[in-house]
Model the fold of this input.
Amino acid sequence: MFEKFEPTARQAFLDASDEARRAGRDRVGSEHVLLGLLAEPGMAADALTAAGLDTRSARAGLPGGSHEAPAALDADGLAILGIDLDAVRRATDAAFGPGALDRVTVPGQRRLPLGDDVKAGLAQAVRQAQQLGQRQISSGHMLLCIIDQRRNAALTVLTHAGIDIAALRADVLQRITAAR
Done:
């Protein structure tokens, strides 16, 4: 299903699933996709950051309140066992890319279903890319489709954070067309 998505856009969906789990949800919603887009480098993250959104304020605007990231690994506790967390992190980053240790998923965890707003956004992202004559769906296409919906939880997060939706849309569209 995600073969036409750029790698960072695909990873944003994996991150979104993690965000939904962290929030104790049984579905991936647009608000989780927004957090996933913010976490992965690319057009969407750049535009969201330029608009003034960060992960902390986005999580604070989630329906039901803030959902903090899981507790960090205990470096001191691991050192007692003879494990140098910094060395493990460097080796993991070298082998699997920066931040890989923080993106670990639990084996055997089933994939969460996508909410209706996310499904509609995916279909719209595909159409948007086709209309612009692009072969792959970027994080920018995904963000556009989230903000182009009439109502969804991601829009609520953005408005609560004081983001100008029209300006964000214009910025994302400009970034998409410049990338052609």
